[in-house]
Amino acid sequence: MKLLTAFLIGLIFGTGILIAGMGNPAKVLNFFDIAGTWDPSLIFVMGGALAVTIPGYLLVLGRPKPLFENGFQLPATKLIDKRLVLGSLTFGVGWGIAGFCPGGALPAMGTGRTEVLLFGVALIAGLLLARLLNRAITRPAGAARTA
Fold first, then answer.
1. Span 47-68, pLDDT tens digits
2. Which one of 21, 23, 125, 144 is CB 3.0 to 4.6 Å from 27, fit for a cystine?
3. For residue 99, how far is the Cα from the chain centroid?
């Protein structure tokens, strides 16, 4: 039941992303082109998402536990640190360059378009690079390298 629920939620999310046009990088990039062919529709997509998400979170988090888990998995900290800010900036710059965010690219992968597949490869490479950098930064000085 848990897997079926996750599948249905993902299907609804992906369908909504595609219907809203967020799988089309030109539409997203036009949102960032304020001085040119600005398309404000992304604001309405985000506003609609917030209008559903905020009451949904309030309703769900008011329960003692999720339906299919023993407890909620929420962030342990609310700290806004350098890593969070740099990660957010990197995400925003990548979104502005490619016109895709992971949420819009995943459903668009089904189209088989080359630019979407290239974005997916770049996304995975970026995740792996970030993991390597994180390990290098957080490794204590003088610690032995492991394979």
1. 998 999 999 999 999 999 988 8
2. 21
3. 13
